[in-house]
Design goal:
- It is a single chain.
- The chain has helices at residues 29-36, 39-48, 51-66, 70-73, 174-210, 212-227, 230-240, 247-261, 263-277, 281-288, 293-301, 306-329, 341-345, 351-356, 364-384, and strands at 94-97, 100-114, 119-131, 133-143, 147-155.
- By secondary structure, it is α+β, with helices and mostly antiparallel strands.
- The protein has 2 domains: 71-175, no CATH class; 178-384, MetI-like (MetI-like fold, Orthogonal Bundle), CATH 1.10.3720.10.
- The strands form 2 sheets. The protein has a 3-stranded antiparallel sheet with strand order 1-2-3, with no helix packed on it. A two-stranded antiparallel sheet has the order 4-5.
- Helix 3 packs across helix 15.
- The chain is flat and about 110 Å long.
Length: 389
């Protein structure tokens, strides 16, 4: 057998051309974009596939934007009274009259007092066509306490009225008061969850990272608070607020009360997470490098489950909205002249008034919609927190 020349190169089948991954893996543009997406992009894509959560987010963003211009959106001023239209029923919105299309309008009322039961009776009169005005001048209001203005998105006709959701016992437009009430009812949840998040992360973080006596005391305190029925505890704490306080102090007092009662569940969640994460190798590495405990908790541990905290906070906001509504409905929360959905529902405490004037229950509808929207949003955020499932 003849051996090959040692100077001659050995035969091989390896290509000398530069490596091109596209020649091996035939990915589509969509697949390639998915592989190159960041963590936030993956979470957003999974969140968008959760249709109820996406619709709820759009609804809530729109609702929170409207509170910036509540005065403009409301047809009437918050305190405008129409003594000739006390307990007036809702007016129907029309586009056709006698089979012909025309500008949006409502029919005016004919009023009489029923002498048998002393009930005010309003009858729509088809001859009183009251065309709705848009971007018009109406009741004067103080825009965010900065200046006087009178521009409204929608106004009644010059000599007419516009009560799309009816009026209350003082002749005040319920729709306008619901628009103003949203400013208080939905912001009290945000302020309350800020207090709750701060206490929950701080107390739960210290208890979970250090443990020891502080952890034992904290857990017993949480168990005591959670064992007390919620509504009696709310009533007791709300009754502490002095009746001489101004409405703005009562507002912040209720906010703090709701935050102080809702931190326990979040604190336990943070504690359980930190008990598991503090044993990880990267935590030991940061301790060896001399990082302080506060830096380890705030920069390395808390961000590890921040998405879970966001979802938990989102689900806690409707609880605080319901808490404010309950306290105000029972007369122990916010009081006039502050207007919230719970304050508006105090008109419906009398069952006889509800039976005669069912439109007084309209403020229940936005409460239900907001609570459902926050729950759907929380479900979507919780699913999106782990985009690899």
């Amino acid at each position: 057998m003849t051996l090959p020349d040692s100077a001659a190169p050995l035969p091989h089948t390896v290509s000398d051309a530069p490596f091109d991954p596209d020649s091996i893996y035939d990915y589509t543009d969509a697949q390639q974009a998915l592989f190159e997406a960041s963590q936030l992009q993956l979470m957003w894509r999974k969140f968008c596939r959760h249709r109820p959560a996406l619709i709820s987010m759009i609804f809530l963003v729109f609702l929170y934007l409207t509170i910036l211009v509540s005065e403009i959106l409301a047809p009437y001023n918050l305190h405008s009274r129409h003594i000739d239209h006390i307990y007036a029923p809702p007016q129907s919105f029309h586009l056709f009259h006698d089979g012909r299309l025309r500008a949006p309008f409502v029919y005016g009322y004919d009023y009489k007092l029923n002498m048998e039961n002393l009930k005010r009776e309003y009858t729509p009169n088809p001859d009183k066509i009251q065309t709705i005005r848009w971007l018009c001048r109406g009741d004067t209001y103080n825009f965010w306490g900065a200046f006087e203005w009178d521009v409204h998105l929608v106004c009644p006709a010059e000599d007419g009225v516009l009560f799309l959701l009816g009026t209350d016992r003082l002749g005040r437009d319920i729709l306008s008061r619901m628009i103003y009430g949203a400013r208080v009812s939905i912001t009290i949840g945000l302020l309350g969850i800020t207090v709750s998040l701060t206490l929950g992360i701080l107390i739960g973080g210290i208890a979970g990272y250090y443990g020891g006596l502080f952890d034992v005391i904290t857990q017993r305190l949480i168990e005591v608070i959670q064992s007390i029925p919620s509504i009696p505890l709310w009533l007791a704490l709300a009754a502490i607020l002095p009746i001489t306080w101004s409405p703005i102090f009562v507002y912040f007092g209720i906010t703090v009360i709701l935050g102080l009662l809702d931190w326990t569940g979040l604190a336990r969640t943070v504690r359980s997470k930190l008990l598991a994460l503090r044993e990880e190798d990267y935590v030991s590495a940061t301790q060896v490098m001399g990082a302080s405990s506060w830096r380890i908790i705030s920069r390395h541990l808390i961000p590890g489950f921040a998405s879970h905290l966001i979802a938990t906070a989102t689900l806690a906001i409707p609880t605080m909205i319901l808490g404010e509504t309950t306290l105000s409905f029972l007369g122990l929360g916010l009081r006039a002249p502050i207007t919230s959905w719970g304050v508006l529902l105090t008109e419906a405490q009398n069952i006889n008034a509800v039976a005669l004037y069912p439109w007084l229950l309209w403020p229940v509808l936005p409460v239900i919609l907001v609570v459902l929207a926050f729950n759907f949003l929380g479900d979507g955020l919780r699913d999106a927190a782990d985009p690899y499932k």
